[in-house]
Amino acid sequence: MYPELSLYIAGRFIDAQGRRTHAVHDPATLQPLGLLPWAEAEDVEAAVQAAHAAFAGWRRVSPLERSDLLRRVAALARERAPEIGHAMTLDNGKPLADAVAEVLNAAEHVEWHAEEGRRVYGRVVPARQPGVRQLVVREPVGVCAAFSPWNFPFGQAMKKAAAAIAAGCPIVLKGPEESPSALVAMARLFHDAGLPAGVFNLLWGVPAEISRQLIESPLVRVVSFTGSVPVGRQLAALAGQHMKRMTMELGGHAPVLVFDDADVDAAVALLARLKTRNAGQVCVSPTRFHVQSGVHDRFAAAFADALGAVKVGHGLEDGVQMGPLIHERRYQAVRALVDDARARGAELLTGGGRIGGDIGAEGHFHAPTLLANVPADARVMHEEPFGPVAALSRFDTVDEALQQANALPFGLASYVFTRSLQTATRVGDGLEAGMVNINHSGMAHPELPFGGVKDSGFGSEGGTESFDSFLSTKLITQI
């Protein structure tokens, strides 16, 4: 069964009660699941006021007490992961195993922040004259306005909430209307764990209306956003006008560099899983595949076979590895990129368009697709596909590989496959990306910073850097 949906403000779950509503659908079957209440302006103001009122007390709560509460949240998340994952599969489309894994990974992030939040240290600076005491302390900034995406509805939101709450900052979270059940479940976790009213608040509604009201509020001190580059630019500009701290985790267009000396079979097996994970709707999904000429044809044939063997279907079916795209707009956007590349001369090696009847489903399913000999001016080489599409091209030298990889304004994730330590070092140093994966993928751990450079944003979620946006630095000098 699909859970009842609600707002969560000042410790209370609030249903529609005459508010506007948004219909939530299963992207695999197109069947309606429920109605999501949208926040009105007075709801947004109530959430900000509740968070501001809670800040006075929460900022003074011991880090050890905050840690204990977050550990209770993590334990409840692990206990409820199957039911949270089931509902997430219904409104998001990802396979059940992936949805449950997302909840469990988020629980690990909560536990890590619970522990690391106890270690937000300041320092004593030696003075230049006797009798002077110089202290540097770190203090919670205040209310955080957070915006989380639909592709990882539980995991992305929990990263923000765990860091803010561990640092002593209440949070007002605007969630994704496409896939809301996981965040209502998250609010229930915090509620049942005993988080004081107002420290966590959850809103839904018209994105432009809510984001503007939150960011323009003088009570909101920090903005955390995960989403597309165009929307991130708009919110960053608005936050900059009001001198708000920001963390922006924006889109990418991750290059893959496969060198002649790579273990091609291992690379193909890993990249096929990464490319079709969440139907390619992942900001760090590998998208531009630059393969050295010596192994290009072998890689292309093996990769096409691997993508063609992926089992696509409803995420609740046994053995399904890839579900649908989130909605018809996303399908049409992906299809347009494929059509444009083919019109410009790209060769279709597998996939290419809609599947549905073949798998007994009516939803937004796009076949895993591999395009070869993609010209440099094709849209798919410049626009993040955010779907199960891989664009393949070849290179000859290391310099050429780096030039192709760094040609775009994006700089989030990147992938390298080589057996040469010299090549790995040179390319690892030369790639303009916030994260470089060499011969594997290892970016999702809570102890590691996750973030990009260039148009892919700034700031990190995870690692000790996770707290930077939520803490201000104060100097106390006394004689």
Question: Helix coverage percent of residues?
Answer: 25-40%
The top level CATH class name of the largest domain: Alpha Beta
Strand order of the largest sheet: 14-15-16-13-12-17-18
CATH architecture of the largest domain: 3-Layer(aba) Sandwich
Estimated radius of gyration: 23 Å
Number of domains: 2
How much of the sequence lies in strands comes to: 15-25%
Number of strands: 20
Question: What class would the helix/strand composition place it in?
Answer: alpha/beta
Question: What does it look like?
Answer:
This protein is 38% helix and 20% strand. A seven-stranded mixed β-sheet has the order 14-15-16-13-12-17-18, with helices on both faces. Strands 9-8-7-10-11-19 form a six-stranded mixed β-sheet, sandwiched between helices. Strands 5-6-20 form a three-stranded antiparallel β-sheet, with no helix packed on it. The mean pLDDT is 96. The chain has helices spanning 41-58, 63-92, 96-116, 153-167, 181-193, 207-216, 229-241, 264-276, 293-308, 328-343, 398-405, 421-430, and strands spanning 7-9, 12-14, 21-25, 32-37, 123-124, 133-140, 143-147, 171-174, 200-203, 220-226, 245-249, 254-258, 286-292, 347-350, 369-372, 389-395, 413-417, 435-438, 457-458, 471-478. α1 packs across α6. The N and C termini lie far apart (65 Å). It folds into two domains: 7-250 and 455-478, Aldehyde Dehydrogenase, Chain A, domain 1, CATH 3.40.605; 254-445, 3-Layer(aba) Sandwich (Aldehyde Dehydrogenase, Chain A, domain 2). It has 479 residues and is an alpha/beta fold. The longest helix has 30 residues, at 63-92. The chain has twelve helices and 20 strands.
